[in-house]
Amino acid sequence: MLYLAPAAVAAWLLPYGLGGYTMHVVDVAVIFAVLAIGLGLTMGVAGQINLAQVAFFGIGAYTVAILTTKTGLGFWPAAVLAVVASIVAGLLVGIPALRMQSHYLGIVTLGLALGFINWVTNAEIAGRAEGISDIPVPPLFGIDLSSGYLYYYLELVVFVLALAFALFVTRSPLGRRLRAMRDDDLAAGALGAEIPLLRMTAFVLSGLYGGIAGVLYAGLIQFVAPETFNIGNMFLLLAMVIIGGRASVIGCVVGALGLAFVREALLDVSAFAQLGYGVIVVLVVVFFPKGLAGLPAQVFRRKRAERPRLSPFIPYDEAPAVEAQTVLEIDQITKRFKGLIALQDISLSVPAGQIRGIVGPNGSGKTTLFNVISGFYTPTAGRVRLAGTFVTGAAPYRLSLKGVARTFQNLRLFEDLTVRDNILVAADRTRTSWIWRYLALPWTVSTYDRGLRSRADDVLGRFGLTGFADVVPRSLPYGIQRRIEIARAMAMRPSLLLLDEPAAGLNGDEVRQLAEIVRSIRDSGVTVVVIEHNMGLVMSLCDHVTVLSGGRVIADGTPDEVAVDPRVVEAYLGDSMAAPTEDDTDREAEHEHADR
Amino acid sequence: MKLTIVAVTLVALTACAPPGEDSGSGQKTEGPIKVANINAQSGQLSSLGKWENKGVKLAVDEANKAGGVNGRQVQLDLFDDQGDPTVGTNLARKISADGYVAMLGTAESAVTLAMAPILKTAKIPNITSGQSPKLADLKSPFLFLNAPTSVTFDETLAKYLVDEKASKKIALISNNGAYGSGEHDAFLKSLKQRNVTPVADEVVTPEQKDFNSNLAKIRQQNPEVLFIGAEEVQSGLIAKQARELGLKAVFAGGAPMGTDVYATTAGLANAEGSVVSSPYLSNEASPAIKEFAAKYKAVYGEEARLHVAKAYDGASIMIEALKQTGGEGGQKLADAIRGVKRDGLLGQYNYDESGVGIHETKIGLVKEGKAVPAAAS
């Protein structure tokens, strides 16, 4: 807050110290800053490669130009329609993102941007190569906005609102979900984030900011032509975001303003300016991957106090015993992958309050079964019932909201989110359709977020992770990361917890702590299903064990019964050569084995 | 406490005086007269921009050597618009803030169109090298063209081809850039007025280099005339590839086809007989042009051409008008430009209310890479 006031005063007084031309340069720079915020939100925060931002910008500007000059509509009604048009364009560009990601998405968005340029250079209504001139000056209560000075204040107001909204979104539950999706969309889905809708949201935000910038541009320059929205300018915009630091909204603004002025300074050697931007981008990507926004952290990294220690786990309160009820019921599940049968006619039912162990040799289908239960795979045949309701084939986020939590065999923590944020993503139990509140009732979002934070602090405290709340998981030892993943799953307040090899890579002491934690979780009323290879742990921890081999259930009973079952002994020890080709099954069915 | 006082003072200051520059920054009556030359010095159109600048510079240097404008030197400053209209609008504001009284350029109609409203507000007369009919449509009292518009070029061409030579089977190929589409629209309009429908109408992009598929389509129609609406190099490539495909049609087009660049790109044999509509056919067309071409070659060591000549004409008109106003700009300078009747290299300048000074072009035929007046053939 302290640094805000001087910045505001400086921004307000800035025009008094500037010449008419410099003022105009500042006006243009502010427009690029708004654009860069939009690109930063889609690319940096939500991780959606978007090379169509300059097209959204163009759609905003061209819509204003066409509506005001061809239909005689007033500037402001045209502006509203222009922003709507850009948002619609954002939705259309976002549709491919539902099916493809990373470089494919880059190519698709680039293609759409080129398509836009092509259309405006050829369409009669868009004035073709000569563009559209004579866009009216926006009227505003008698203030003469043809003056670059007064226009600056209009821009300043819009910019501050746009920046505030972007900061609000990034720091809100929605922003955390977007960032979680960027880091790992599978894990985010398993934590209740509705991935398709989130991707669309990212592109809608992109369209919104592009449209606003386009309107400001049309009002300022009063002229539009295809050259302004070409790929060269898209690159400039990309450079602004990368140099500033794409994951930070403030960084994007700094990058945009900075590069806009560098561009101005290079006007006399503009032939080589593109080359210059290219070199700067390469240097930044190599030496400061997080851009200018990452610099302070890079400089002050070493000045950290000694490493905090893991505190002991505080057991949950025991829940009163409930009447026996089947939490999970699997009925004749079969899963085939192109002729390979990973699961065949699996049936099992888990009563409330049980710790169920699932064991079996590698490739026996354990993780595939988890993926079916948590909605990652749709079974080829069979049904899954959760506390009595059929949920076969439901999307992971729906199952998550119904109380299914899971961990992953290979950790899937959100690497660039702090431990607290990891927990907060899981604690957020809203549907994504809740996002209308971000525009309509922002204060309710803040209240909700405060509630989330206190719950997250509870979870952190209980799992002894308070000391690590503000570091990124990547920097922590493996055992602690395992514990974070369990804490994250528990932050969802699930009724059914699926643990996929929770003891892998843990030392003896950590395994003991793990058993204590799992028992306490069970005692709090959560049903636990655990896949584990550590047979000692399985025997001591589980109430009931199901043994899989070759995609079938070969034994089911108490640990003592199962341990002496001849089929189990055979599956584990004898005749392993005759077992179905594990390696193949591994690759096809349990893709998470790949890293092992 | 101190801070509060400062803050209150600042707020009060903000409340009573909106920021801005004194708009009447005053016409200086001493020192050099500042004239801006805005042209693309980088990007695709930089060769045009460089020629324009040389022509302008030649005229200004001559005037300064001869004593300037009523004893004051003309200070010519070059700005690079990169062929980008947005940069153009930035520069328009820059020159109006920096006290330039007049502007020469640009060679790109789209850039000039973008700048025109700003220059009109700032009352800075602008003599442009653009020839898009849209420039004339603006009817800005501060915008003047140093060459005819595409309408004149193509009307003359259509008159020659259809009325005199009675060609009926005419095919069009043009690019969709600002120049190409302007040519296309103007020529098509002139044909329509003569009830001629083109047998083919192919549109390419300004970056395109291979036209075989477009030309193959045109060949099927076996036209008598192929109208080419494109810049110098592209026109040459089209002509070359058309002949390679066995197209027999006569090539016709605007000023670019009268240049040596066109002829050398196409190959002298292929360019032979091309019909050109241009106010400036060759460096030998008249004694005045010969003298200018020699002068230009002496200074820059290269052949003069239309772009150089019209920029020279434009700058000369501007200087003549400045002499009349005594270096004063604004409305007075615009009126003075409108009043200049110059017997220029491109023809007789006689400005109308839409800012067009030259109203006719000549028809030439390319002979051994040089355009010669059609009457002489």
Summary, kept brief:
By secondary structure, chain A is an alpha/beta fold. Chain A folds into three domains: 14-230, no CATH class; 322-403 and 496-596, P-loop containing nucleotide triphosphate hydrolases (Rossmann fold, 3-Layer(aba) Sandwich), CATH 3.40.50; 413-493, no CATH class. Chain A has 24 helices and twelve strands.
Task: Report what the structure shows.
The complex is a heterodimer of chains A (596) and B (377). By secondary structure, chain A is α/β, with parallel strands linked by helices. Chain A contains 24 helices and 12 strands. Chain A has 3 domains: 14-230, no CATH class; 322-403 and 496-596, P-loop containing nucleotide triphosphate hydrolases (Rossmann fold, 3-Layer(aba) Sandwich); 413-493, no CATH class. In chain A, the strands form 3 sheets. Chain A has a 6-stranded mixed β-sheet with strand order 8-9-10-5-11-12, sandwiched between helices. Chain A has a 4-stranded antiparallel β-sheet with strand order 4-3-6-7, with helices on one face. In chain A, helix 3 (53-70) runs parallel beside helix 5 (102-122). The two termini of chain A are 48 Å apart. Mean pLDDT of chain A is 85; it is low at 576-582 and 584-596. Chain B is of the alpha/beta class and 377 residues long. Chain B has helices spanning 2-16, 46-65, 85-97, 109-122, 133-138, 150-164, 178-193, 212-221, 232-244, 260-266, 268-271, 287-300, 306-325, 330-339; strands spanning 33-39, 74-80, 102-104, 126-128, 143-145, 170-175, 200-204, 225-229, 250-253, 275-278, 362-367, 370-373. In chain B, the strands form 2 sheets. A 7-stranded mixed β-sheet of chain B has the order 7-6-8-9-10-11-12, with helices on both faces. Chain B has a 5-stranded parallel β-sheet with strand order 2-1-3-4-5, sandwiched between helices. The model of chain B is unreliable at 12-16 and 22-26 (pLDDT under 50). The chains are: A alpha/beta (596), B alpha/beta (377). The interface between A and B is large, with 35 and 44 residues.
